[in-house]
Amino acid sequence: MLRCVFFFFIMCFQAERDGSNEYSIEPGSLNTTDQLVRDLKNYDIVFHIGDMAYADGYLAEWDQFTEQVEPIASTKPYMVASGNHERDWPDSGSFFTPLDSGGECGVVAETMYYVPAENRAKFWYSADYGMFKFCIADTEHDWRKGSEQYEWIEKCLASADRRKQPWLIFAAHRVLGYSSNSWYGGEGTFSEPEGKDDLQKLWQKYRVDIAFFGHVHNYERICPIYQSQCVNTEKSQYSGVQNGTIHVVVGGGGRSLSDYSSLIPVWSVYRDHDFGFVKLTAFNHSSLLFEYKKSRDGEVYDSFTIYREYKDVLACVHDSCEPTTLAN
Questions:
Q1: Is the Cβ–Cβ distance between 43 and 6 less than 8 Å?
Q2: Is there a domain that residue 324 lies in?
Q3: Higher-pLDDT residue of 178, 256
Q4: Cα torsion through 310, 124, 289, 309, rounded to 10
Q5: pLDDT the model gives residue 328
Q6: In this record, what's one Pfam family (predicted)?
Q7: Is residue 79 part of a domain?
């Protein structure tokens, strides 16, 4: 009998449990931590996709953060990604150059946490776990076509053996796909500038099931999408040919929440302005359950299922198969 495998994705939490902070910018973090610890026996691995401690150069904040997540990280694989508050600093090699890391430049994060990267200063890596293949990108280094990371992302996605790893997951900190966050909406981009320009063809070509992002401090689920067009109108159950990647913003781990744009794009399936996290359950090679849970009560507020056979992954759809002719 195939075993069940459980995962969840979270972003950014840390706060004083004794209430000693006069002003906390991460008001939901303790609820998130407590919910995860309460149900920890039902998880196999944890992914925290950037902006972990929000220390911004103050090492005492890292001490507080690691103490808070110790009940989780000491018993389960705790996989991390690089965010702007771990990495960004002028003239440090970051793709973006604000002062967000407080001068950490990624050094603290890569020292505190191990990731199976070829070069840990470049925080992109692949992780195989059960029926899942994870490709974790680093949005604080260049991801565009022609870059070192782009070549790695394609190699990672292409290496998935979909007979053994039917569920292919992409994750990164900044939103490289879709978000109706007010800042993105105001810019008219609905993602990082140039975010999805090159990557969407890779997600489509290699049939990525779900792409997860943080950075924006709320929750939003996007329809199965390709080139800004929903390719499936279903909301709760997806089956048959894989055509388009489902995008999810899961940034409500604890930091003060972000507002949405007043414009609701047609591709936005579900939005929630609250703290929460996501859980994935693979029952077998053809059945996957997605659940979004609120941190305040641990209850499920959004969910969907995917039912797909191996032949459905292999089927050709737009931009997913190499062109062929009678000549070749």
A1: yes
A2: no
A3: 178
A4: 0
A5: 44
A6: Metallophos
A7: yes
Q: What is the CATH number of the domain that holds 100?
A: 3.60.21.10
Contact 38, 72 (CB under 8 A): no
User: Residue 213: which domain range?
Assistant: 3-314
**CA-CA distance, 191 to 178, in Å (whole number)?**
5
CA distances from 132 to 6, 129, 239, 282, 294 (A): 10, 5, 18, 8, 24
Given pLDDT bands bounded at 50, 70 and 90, which one contains residue 120? Answer: confident
Residue 113, pLDDT above cutoff 60: yes
Q: Where is pLDDT greater, at 10 or 243?
A: 243
Give the list of residues 6+ apart from residue 322 with CB closer than 8 angstroms, or none.
none
Assessment of whether the complete model's pTM goes beyond 0.85: yes
Query: What residues contact 184, with CB distance under 8 A and at least 6 apart?
Result: 175, 190, 191, 192, 216, 261
Q: What is the count of structural domains for the chain?
A: 1
Q: Is residue 320 part of a domain?
A: no
Residue that the structure tokens 């930091």 belong to: 255
Structural domain contains residue 326: no
Question: Which two tokens mark 140?
Answer: 């604080």
Beta strand pairing call for 245-250 and 210-213: parallel
